[in-house]
Amino acid sequence: xxxxxxxxVGGWTRFHALTPEGxxxxxxxxxxxxxxxxxxxEVSTQLVNGTNYRFKCDASMPPREVIWQAxxxxxxxxxxxxxxxxxxRI
Length: 90
Description:
CATH architecture: Roll
Radius of gyration: 14 Å
Number of helices: 2
Strand order of the largest sheet: 1-2-3-4-5
Helix content: 10-25%
CATH topology: Nuclear Transport Factor 2, Chain: A
């Protein structure tokens, strides 16, 4: 996919390394989340009326350290706080 195709409104980027901005969005949306611990590894974004994020994560639930992968979907509106839309185990 070319950079131009990635920049199109509505198109998802490929999964890529997490940026400081992406980490900030993830941390804000997950604030206060209890239970499963999600550690983001990569991110894919989609420009809409705001930004959709798909974070590929390692997930674990204390006290056992069984680890699986999940995709955490977060929506960041233009004006407002990011929030979790869905979490899917993969």
